[in-house]
Structure formats: structure tokens, C-alpha cells
Specification:
The chain is mostly beta strands and 222 residues long. The chain has a domain of 154 residues: Electron Transport, Fmn-binding Protein, Chain A (Pnp Oxidase, Chain A), CATH 2.30.110. The protein has 4 helices and 14 strands. The strands form 4 sheets. The protein has a 7-stranded antiparallel beta sheet with strand order 5-4-8-11-12-7-6. Strands 3-13-14 form a 3-stranded antiparallel beta sheet, with no helix packed on it. Strands 1-2 form a two-stranded antiparallel ribbon. The radius of gyration is 20 Å and the shape is globular. Bound molecules: flavin mononucleotide (FMN). The site of flavin mononucleotide has 17 residues, from strand 5 and strand 7.
Length: 222
Amino acid sequence: MVTRGRSHADGCFTGRVNTWRLPGSHAATRRLEGVPDILAETLRTVLRRFATGVAVVTTWDGDRPWGTTVNSFSSVSLRPPLVLVAFDHERRIVPALRRTGRYAVNILGEGQRALSDCFAGGPSPRDHSASDSSDGSDERDRLCGAEWRRGATGLPVLVDAIASLECTLVDIHPAGDHDLYLARVDSATAAGADPMPLLYYEGRYLRIERAVSLELEGKQER
Ligand SMILES: Cc1cc2nc3c(=O)[nH]c(=O)nc-3n(C[C@H](O)[C@H](O)[C@H](O)COP(=O)(O)O)c2cc1C
């Protein structure tokens, strides 16, 4: 399932961190010579300008449910139905993802900021104490106290998420300090009508105070 340094009929990856090289021409890579590496801090500052939703990825770690907050969730394809999430190599959820080969994505609503914090290693939404309790267990062992159920495919799904998707991994693609977990959607549910999402922007949560709905004039993805 894991792919490394994959080649492609129309070109190939080059270098330690792969760079796409156009077939029959090195112009694309030559142009980058002499350009200093972008600083991680600069990149972080720029990328923080991209507002995202917030989701909790859940899976089974043996017989306990486990979850982690993410904002790297992205839709990829409708036919076949594919999504992806980027996980840092160090995330505790990684071994469970690789063992089960499945994950659920629970998209959080505007009232679920405390859950997002708890699944990101912050305080419990119940008592706002430190996430690691005195008996050595972790709030996330209990899915941060959130109500959950077994979804259509048996994955743990948060009941109050505004939408949830249950997925099967199809590929894990290495990408720097993260891996891209590409998955096929087996089941998807949207709860309620017009719920407000929890948003993340500039390293803070953002709530929509006044939604203005504007006509889209560009081409929509089909
Ligand atoms: C809003 C938000 C979004 C995040 N998105 C991601 C993500 O996409 N990928 C990732 O690996 N970590 C992400 N994190 C970080 C993890 O949720 C956080 O580090 C968590 O504590 C990881 O737990 P663990 O490594 O202890 O299991 C995000 C955190 C927050 C607060």
C-alpha cells in the first residue's frame, strides 16, 4: 500500500524531496536553482491565511476508539469517492491507522471547539483539567467524553458531528514530515440542515457571525 518515489509515464520525481520534472526538459527544476529554501516559519505564516474546517479523525486502536483533531482533511475525487488527511509521522493515531486500514472523519460544528482542543491533546471538555489524568489514562481513551456510536461500517463516529465519513485506506503517500492518507469513502452522513461549521484561521478558531450567501460564477467541480 505504501508508495515511495513513484514514477509516472509523463515524468518522474527527482531529488531527496521529490520535485516533478517535465519530460524531455529540465527547465522546471533548473529555474529553482539558487532560490533559497523557504523558511518553515515563513511558510507557516502564509499557510495560516488559508481558512479551513476542523475535523476529528477516529479509528479503532485495538478495542478502544481513538481520535485526533485535523484540518488537513480534503476532498479529492467524486468518482471514485476519495478523500485524504495528512498526518505527522509522530501522531499517536498512526499505528492504529496502519493496522486497521480505516478511519472516520467527523466534521465539527461551531459549538465543538472544546472537543477539537481535547482531541488535539488539550484539556477535557468535561472538567478542563489537564488531558492526562492522574491514573495515567488519557481523555482521548474515552473519546473526550463525546457521545459516539458505531457507524455503518463499524468505525467509531461522533454523534454530534455536523457530518461524518467512514473510509478505507487505499494509499499512504510519504510527503516530508507528514504522510498523506488517501482513502475511499464507504459511507457518508450529513446531520441536520444548515449547521454552522467550526473554522480554523491564523491559529485560532473562527465562528461565522453573519453568513452571506453569494452566487458562484466560476465553474463548480462536478
Ligand atoms: C485545529 C487543529 C488542526 C490540526 N490538524 C492536524 C493535521 O491535519 N494533521 C496532524 O498530523 N496534526 C494536526 N493537528 C495536531 C494534532 O491534533 C495534535 O498534535 C494532537 O495532539 C496529536 O496528538 P498525538 O500526537 O498526541 O496523538 C491539528 C491540531 C489542531 C488544533
